[in-house]
Write a structure and sequence with these properties.
The structure is a homohexamer of 291-residue chains. By secondary structure, chain A is of the alpha/beta class. In chain A, 36% of the residues lie in helices and 20% in strands. In chain A, the strands form two sheets. Chain A has an eight-stranded parallel β-sheet, with helices on both faces. Chain A has a two-stranded antiparallel ribbon with strand order 2-3. In chain A, α3 (75-91) packs parallel to α4 (105-117) and α4 runs parallel beside α5 (145-151).
Chain lengths: 291, 291, 291, 291, 291, 291
């Protein structure tokens, strides 16, 4: 959106920050180029959002804070760098909107958010729960960050919900990994059966009042709408449906958010990048509403 | 569709004409190769349309009139060339089906159509209203042709409607630009809320009786269905929905039509070109119905 | 799915077999690389299918039998090779799950299936009926196998149904080609009007009891979901809808199945290959249910 | 080159003809779209060739005769159609410049050429000799046409030469297949050692006087220059080198020529199509020189 | 190269400036995204150039001045904007390194350069002379800027040379268009015959002493090395050869330079963008040498 | 090459092994799919290599040992797994031909090779020396393995040489990092000046007698020939030149080899994969010569 590049936090409401990290990925890699692609695609967006009836930049001071310097190949080091980068932003009362990167970055973001706000509510749009305990015997990967976050007390699990889960599992109990941690879940199949309005209401109710984190993994979308992602799952959602659910978050207190798993090397016609950018646009509109 | 290449207008009902012009585009360019791509994709189409129950070529004499020689880089000169090319076709009672090119070409087409038929009704399938007054201080671009057409008296605005508007705007009043000109509009969000049958009925009623122009911008479709276009907007329509709305135009007096903004360099698997070609196929079927 | 490569049929329930043949195709070619692409994409799948509540490999012994050696360029010779390859598999009581190749291979598969089971019921998910009599004056192409199969008595036509037909035809009577052979058909337009649950019930009822063949042509899907195919038709189905219909086949006695017309050279982001692999996954889940 | 589409042979010197056939291919397929791609790319060419110092169309009447109707999937039938299509062209004293299609079409072309001119000299730019006896037990494929042509007496083998052979062979004696038929061969390795001027002289001398056929398989070029082809071989030639060798054919009596194995689905940026079109441009320049 | 974004000209030696304009293009369009692609690819470059034995940033202060705001669709307006943007840069003694955009932008650049330095010497690496008088009856396009520049007295033609001309022409006299203006030319064919060292010496001598402009059109490179360009010509140069010739410019007084015709939509694997970025890297190294 | 999948080492001479690891990469990632792509492309190869005059499989028993199970995201863990996998192969007297993966894997390979053979000679075809000490403060990445190998005493540095170095450096002393370790280096520029025959002789002499490791990074090739790689450098080598240098290794005692940095997501037309496969083909031919 041709945002000014600014690193000074004064008079800033929201800072867009890139987290070009993808070492957590276990299948396709390359989400490190996600921030660049989403920024590029955001040039197509325009300042007034008629769906939310809001002129974003009249209400909100938004700046582009550039990319976090991560250490490709080194997850825990990169976590530390991401957390260290985000903490002063959050301390200054600025909302970070992080563009990933693979989904593993969410753990570092939640650490930073909880340091400022305490345990946060979470709505996670995703086809995967990312609640496994280990991958290849390792505890920090893009399949495990939500479990780690819950274990570390970063989440107010009673105000947390995972939306859009689908695709094959490793074992029958995989969905229980989420619910045992205290999170609510809604599968894609359930969403199709109950309809989106009912699910939107459930999400809104679950998040309640208090600080919330919105995490949007583009594999929530169907591969037809978001081919450029690391672990695509067919049978997913349209962009219209995603925007519908996001708009229903009106009134939620968003203290931080991310858009992850945009992987340009598998994209075409930049449609995944544009989808990611438009998700960011709706998130900014929500934040503007809340000012 | 392997149509014969014919420039003689005798005994012809419809002439397909390419308008390989894209200088009006302000973001992605390359729609000048749209005519070539749509023709190529049309090889997949077959003569009997079961959805409209019509054997197109038994009722309609359709020929391919080749491409208009435009002046790349020069909008007003190209407008003059396009209008001059289309006038004798319309004078001969032949319906031109123009394959664009960017949407700016519609102004030249409307000039030619109005010269023969007087002000025409318009149904415009598009995610953008193209009713801005200026772009970069210039009055003739792909964002302004409908305003120019209304100002020049080429439209019977009471019988004109824009369908599928969505995406961000420059300002809250942007949609009013259309309604102030007298056009009716239906946004994508409104279409989702009211359902397609209601919208189809509204379009049909609006067009009423009298000569009409059908303008189909492929960005009406979602980027998943039409990635190869100049200004994609996520949250759009499926090809099935587009065909449904087109088929509902039965009985409308179509005197000219176009399919614009197919941009092959951003297409893949030729799906945008095929979508454009199939839109043309439904338009030809409608024209055949009317014979 | 990283299946073991096994050619011994002992203790095997299902054998995945590639049929890299595409000489039957009359438009785009290249489906010979379909088996390779589908196998590659299947690496993303996981063993427990929550939609069908089944741990596939706990119930089913599935192996990868490699590719059939076909004779590119020679249809009848290749038919003989495919049939000869599949017969011992079927004789051993093993279910072949064939990955095509173009749709012409289904005739050879049906010959092998009928040799073991007698005439079989057929459910064919496809945008084309493949019931033409001849193409270019030749009787064996990808547009004719179902007619040949009916003529050869390989189908229990009373228990056979074609689902998803759409797109232009050569002549008004083209759909009657199927019904005159005794097959039931449901067009895409009819499916949209009646809704998928009603169609799912109709399919299930039609197949009844007795051995059935499931043939899934990926052009049943919309090109947005399956761009990599030989004769795409816009206005088609989402992958979610395809999976919904497949899951409704619960209780059908599947003795053989195929997934055809995956054409990698026109695919992007491997989404067509992944769609094909996921269809295979649902078919394996159905087979596991039946054990 | 925006040639006129003409089927009348009067006052014509050269007719460009498409042979959209690829059933002979044993690996990648899709060369059936070669004629369309080469024509499209030829729009970039201009009428005066400074390298040969010739204004092509001042000396030569060139028309586009459209595509031959072949029978995809049926080699011998298609051979008969191609030969039948080309014979009247040759009879009328017109030079056919055929755009393939896979290399198997050369047999049909040579049959037509020999019917008019008797056995012809051949220069074949190719990384493969296409002199195998059988492929998969079949005698007519894209690996065998030159052998068949020699056996049928269509070649004046003493005036025939294959240039650019490289890549792995099935057996040590594979190159001898060519020389035993009486053809001369020059491998890529030999060309690099001796240098192109020496090889150009050898070709010119070999062709001598009398009617000649020039067959250019784009896999003569390195895959970096021609990725869109059926059986690429690394370690090949640049386009500059190919043009250099073609220009050295000055004075040869070319009675027919082809450019084969352009396979658009594997091309990118249309560079293979442009290479093919430019080869055609140099051939037309040679023909113009000879007028 | 992750240059700082700076618009203040103090203590700056070189300013990289994007000119995202492509309305001058007559065939493929899309070079407006060239600046973005070249910047992205430049992330691969490193500060010490061993070929020129120079640590660029120890000798040279280089900043990124962002993109010039042009008016897509309007050539003369855009020329005025580009010239107005570059004049203060040149006035401040800063060397602009412009990333195009199509080649038409060079006229505006030369106007700005000549305003400061008087008529400049020019070395133009290009397969086209861009010296036509008109295109489609218009005087300002990407085929005419050098003629306009000469006519306007912006060039010291005695110190100007065009290198790498090749491909078909409209007429035999097309090359004379350059020489009649007083420019020297070297065709690709001549370069191959004489060898690059001789040509490098000729260029160096021609440029002599005094202010020079270096214009690098990426279609100087062969399409295998630079597929992403507007009017590719086969038979061109490798990147090694281009770098060799650039390095031979040691000692030339470069007052401005550009890299034009990078067209990302036709690129793949970003190789054209990387070629463009590396040309910029060598130019910066030359400028660093001269400090 | 359709090799049998075998894990038993008896009577085996060479085992092809995939190392699908790319966590060491610092720029583009995705080489984990390199083994799959190279295997797929190898289907084009044929058993007799006329350039080396050897029927590979008559002299050599070659099997495909499948892929090593690595831990994506964890370098040191993966090193341990790779070394553990290769040690028994080497112990059995079998030559491993490893398909990477990024270049970081070479350290694990060298550990395994040295465990069997002691310090080995090394010829590394590469545009980068991979001798940096650290990247982002970490010691194990794809930029450091050769330094680590030298430090660990795995190399007989007097018999080691790096060939093809080019592109920008971080500092003037970067090349000295190699020579200070005792390795010989030849830059691309030096190779162009001295000619390939001289360099081939230098390599052969350097390797001398005794066990050697051949490491081929596809970025040795120019991006026109190998676009699908992680850190492309323009100005590189053709595939012909690479094959020429490899063939000159005749008589070298190769005890292990690898082909790394094939990155399919940035490839097109599979030309990088085919280049990688052909390099493997020449290496197998060399090994067959040595039997």
């Amino acid at each position: 959106m041709r945002l000014p590049y600014v690193t000074d936090l004064k008079d800033v409401d929201v800072m867009v920050v890139g987290a070009p990290f993808d070492t957590g990925a276990t299948f396709r890699v390359g989400a490190r180029f996600g921030p660049s692609a989403v920024r590029e695609a955001s040039a197509l967006l325009r300042p007034y959002n008629p769906a939310q009836e809001i002129a974003i930049f009249e209400r909100l001071s938004v700046v582009d804070g550039g990319d976090i310097v991560v250490a490709p190949g080194f997850i825990e080091d990169s976590y530390a760098r991401i957390e260290a980068h985000l903490r002063p932003i959050l301390e200054a009362g600025v909302i970070p909107l992080v563009i990933g990167g693979d989904h593993s970055v969410v753990l570092a973001e939640l650490r930073a958010a909880a340091a400022k706000h305490g345990p946060v509510g979470l709505v996670q749009f995703d086809s995967h729960s990312d609640c496994w305990d280990q991958y290849f015997g390792h505890r920090y990967t893009h399949g495990t960050p939500i479990r780690r976050a819950a274990e570390e007390g970063l989440l107010d699990t009673k105000r947390s919900i995972q939306v859009g889960l689908r695709g094959g599992l490793y074992a029958p109990g995989d969905y229980a990994l989420s619910t045992e941690l205290g999170l609510d879940i809604v599968t894609t199949m359930e969403m199709r059966e109950r309809g989106l309005p009912a699910v939107a209401a459930q999400i809104r109710e679950r998040l309640g009042t208090g600080p919330c984190f919105v995490s949007f993994d583009v594999d929530f979308l169907d591969p037809a709408y978001a081919p450029g992602t690391g672990t695509p799952e067919v049978g997913g959602f349209t962009t219209y449906e995603a925007l519908y659910l996001l708009r229903a978050l009106k009134g939620v207190e968003i203290v931080a958010a991310d858009i992850v798993e945009v992987l340009p090397a598998y994209d075409h016609g930049e449609i995944t990048a544009l989808a990611g950018a438009t998700v960011g646009y709706e998130l900014l509109s929500l934040m503007a509403q809340a000012q």
